[in-house]
Every structure is written in structure tokens, then in C-alpha cells.
Write a structure and sequence with these properties.
Elements lengths: L3 H11 L1 H13 L8 H13 L4 E4 L3 E7 L2 E12 L26 H18 L4 E9 L8 H7 L10 E12 L3 E3 L2 E4 L3 E8 L3 E2 L9 H19 L6 E9 L6 E2 L2 E10 L2 H21 L3 E7 L5 E3 L1 H15 L4 E3 L10 H6 L2 E9 L20 H17 L2
Parallel strand pairs: 3-4, 3-5, 5-16, 6-15
Antiparallel strand pairs: 1-2, 2-4, 6-16, 7-14, 8-12, 8-13, 9-11, 10-12
Helix pairs in contact: 1-10, 2-4, 4-10, 6-7, 8-10
Amino acid sequence: MANLKSNIQQLAKDFFTETVENRRHLHQNPELSFEEYQTSAFVKQKLDELNIPYQTMANTGVVGIIKGELASDKVIALRADMDALPITEVKGRSYGSQNPGVMHACGHDVHTSSLLGVAKILQHLKSSFGGTVKLIFQPGEEKLPGGASLMIKEGVLRNPEPSAVIGQHVMPFIEVGKVGFRSGQYMASCDELFMTVRGRGGHGAQPHQNIDPIAITAQIITGLQQVVSRFADPRIPTVLSWGKIIGNGATNIIPDEVYLEGTFRTFNEEWRADAHQKMVKMAQGIAESMGASCDFEVRKGYPFLVNEPKLTENARSFAKEYLGDNNVVELELWPAAEDFSYYSQEANACFYRLGTGNKEKGILSAVHTPTFDIDENALELSIGLMSYITIKQLSE
């Protein structure tokens, strides 16, 4: 173990080029959530080359097993998601998507290629550690019900049961060479909202003869913000946003109905359930008071993500050993959502951020945008650090 850091750093350098090649292959061949058939086949091919046994879960998910040769019953799981997004990538990249309208705009190509690199490092070093490492290549992070929930139902956290689940995610707002950690609550729960307000349409010059769903919807939108500003405990971060509003009228035509889609996010399960009831009751009450009706569906999504303090502090400490104190930053509470949260609700979990941005190279775009990209130098750090954290945690 004395030379563990230098050994891993050297292996990360040795396997860096292959990791970049794997990332670019995946980036060129993105697949949507729960359709990751080629990606799954690629992962299996790479595991076969490494003589790592695996099984299939959740149709396109893959779970590999590496057993250290020293005596230990400890088990750690490492997770990478594999799906892409329905986004058209900006043109001009030699490694750009070859699947029109689909793009790895959230870095899952980085996560998958990184875990393959970690697998290669751990397979080379398995004589120097004890315990078992589960490699979870997971489908469908971007789409409800979330591939994590399906894999958990199929037993990915059993036989053997991991004492820890560790994952990483690209972060373009952290400079390459750095990583970020946060203990405790980190990311929000995420629910999808679907609402239809039905009135009675007609000519815009005769509003008294109509029940205007646009005006009523405006009242509902304004009223529902009171759920956040007046019902929520101000110590519990809460977000309510509407991203789609469709009222197919015209300059002088009031439509019969208005359709909305939105999201609700928070960090407390009791308040989350209470808010669902309050939103539905308020929206329907406003609509009915103005002569309209309202259908309001809440599709419950991912729970909030919590990083187990002791595991996360261990991982943070190992990262400082590997990278130096100045390259490990503190993350802020973030109301985005991730289905890694399902693992964190079932087991001790640590989800950290991999810096992939580079201001000098102009690599600044946020995830889920057509211009998203990474500084690929992050891949050497990625595979080395996760390998180091894994072996150190197994030896704890």
C-alpha cells in the first residue's frame, strides 16, 4: 500500500489514451435512456477483454465483479450511467455524435469510459487489495423511473451487499484538475408536474361569454408560488418552475384549455408529500372558483440525494492525498436531481464532482446544452482518483 498512489498514477497515465478513445467512441454513438444496446455491448466487450465477469440487469445495465486477492469480505460498488439526451450537438467536432438528435450532453460517456478505466486499473492491482468491487453500468438516469431504481429492484445492492456506493459526475464549472465533495444532503428530489386548465373558448372581443383558461392559468401560476414562499419552511430549499405552457388560441381567440408542464424540487420527504397535496388542491380550487376545471398530475420522481458523512469525509481525505488540498473543493447544495439518489436512500453513498471545465480552452458550457464538452485531461484524474478512493476505502 505504500506505493499505492504512485502505482495508480502511473497506471492512469498508461491507460489515459485508451480511456479517451473509449469516451470518444461512446460520444459518437450516444443512445437514449433505456435504449443503450450498443453501449451495453461495448461495455461487455471491454469487460471480456479484462476477464471481468458480469451480468445483465434492467435490460441494458451491466454489473461487473472484481475480487481482490487479499482476505476481506468488504464490498464497494462503483456506478456510471450510460444514457444520452435528445439534443442535437453543435457541428464541427471530429468526435461529434453520429446519431442525429441524440448527444452525450450530460457527460455519461465520461462516466462510462472512466469506470472502464477504473476497472482496468483495479484488475491490474487486485493482488494488492482485498474485498469485492461491483462495477455498475446503469441505464436510464435521464428518464423516470430512473435506471437506478430498476437495478435496485433487480438486486444490484444484494449478493453481495456493498458497504458503500460511490459515483462521480462531470462538473463544467469546476476547473479540470479539481474535484468537489459535500457531506449530507446534496441534490434535490425531483417531481414532474402536468396540468390542464379547461375553460370555454371563444372570441377575444367577447370575454364575458367565455371562461378564459389563460387568465385562470395565470392566477394558478401566481397562486402556486405561495406554496414555495408561504407554506414551505424557509430552512428547506424548495423550487417550483413551469417549463412548458401551451394555449392554442390566437390574437383574438381564447382557447378552450391551457396545458402546462413543470417541476417541483425539495430536500425533505414529508414536506414533499404535503406540497403535492397543497398544489393540487390550490390549483383545482382557483380553477373551480372561476368556472373552470383543472386536471393536475404529479409524477413522483427521484428522491433527494444524501452523501453519508463518514464515507464522504473518507473520500474527501483520500482525494486530498491523491490530488493535494488545493484541488479538492466544497460543493454547495444543488437543486438539480440525480437518480444516484436511489442508491443513497438504500446504502451509504458518496457522489462527488469531477472538474471538466477549462476557461483557457473555452470549455465552459453547462450540461444539457448542444455545446457541452469536457477537457479530456480530466479522464486521467478520473480513473486514477476513483481507483485510489476505492482501494483506500476497502482497506479502512
